[in-house]
Specification:
Low-confidence stretches: 18-36, 212-218
Mean pLDDT: 83
Number of domains: 1
Number of strands: 11
Bound molecules: 2-acetamido-2-deoxy-beta-D-glucopyranose
């Protein structure tokens, strides 16, 4: 059961990062920077700390460093009750890309404006549960981005840094080297439904085909 859930987490995030690679037109590669962390302070804990579950609804502004040296901002709107996870990416000096992920497994990726494009993808798995870090392996404490954090690793896929004092997430890294730094974290913030309505051109098949070829060149 746990394995099944772990796989779902892995597939969800994996599908996401694979898609990002696709969008950036990059070959896959495995980064090794997160696997070996000699600077971690491992102290003796009677009870190892466990990660704080994600709030059911929050808004976070993320500063993301992609493996390509490209940077982007993401407005992350996680909403478990509404069954959606929204990323609005501002690529540095580039496009704004909407990524609307639904718990039924369907995700929409689209841009707005003159050369608007859309791609609909069925990943077959839902969004991460608020407790998706359950069972993560505790690694110890480290100062990152200037905050003293507890660090966990889960299924060699995500490295998660949580502020020791406030219990807020500070940073998370994926196995492929994409690193997200949490700049704001507003618990309870909800994105209006109107923003997440996929545009009409997402539902026209030939456009979808063209969208994928266009987006892959971005
Ligand atoms: C992005 O990450 C790479 C690899 O860790 C690092 O060398 C680079 O300095 C980072 N860039 C920024 C702007 O954070
Ligand atoms: C999943 O939900 C979204 C939003 O309600 C909808 O647009 C999409 O068609 C649904 N996908 C499936 C496979 O039902
Ligand atoms: C998709 O692209 C092809 C070739 O560039 C073009 O002929 C076709 O009209 C496009 N379809 C749509 C819906 O834009």
């Amino acid at each position: 059961m746990t394995t099944n859930m772990d796989n779902n987490i892995k597939i969800t995030f994996q599908a996401f990062s694979v898609l990002i690679f696709f969008l950036l037109h990059l070959p896959n590669h495995v980064a090794s920077n997160t696997n070996n962390e000699p600077w971690l302070t491992t102290t003796e804990h009677e009870h190892e700390p466990t990660p704080t579950p994600w709030p059911e609804q929050f808004h976070a502004l993320l500063y993301m460093n992609l493996t390509t040296t490209h940077l982007q901002l993401s407005d992350l709107w996680y909403d478990w009750p509404k069954g959606r996870n929204v990323n609005i990416f501002q690529k540095q000096l580039g496009i704004v890309l909407y990524d609307i992920e639904w718990n039924n497994g369907t995700s929409f990726y689209y841009t707005l404006g003159a050369d608007a494009q859309c791609q609909m993808v069925d990943f077959g798995v839902g969004i991460p549960r608020p407790d998706f870090l359950d069972g993560a392996h505790y690694l110890g404490q480290v100062v990152t981005d200037g905050f003293l954090c507890n660090v966990w690793e889960k299924v060699e896929f995500i490295w998660y840094y949580e502020d020791v004092v406030t219990k807020r997430p500070v940073r998370w890294d994926f196995y492929d080297g994409i690193s997200s730094h949490v700049m704001t974290f507003e618990v309870g913030a909800v994105l209006p439904d109107s923003v997440v309505q996929a545009p009409a051109y997402c539902f026209i098949d030939p456009a979808v085909e063209n969208a994928s070829s266009t987006l892959s060149r971005v």
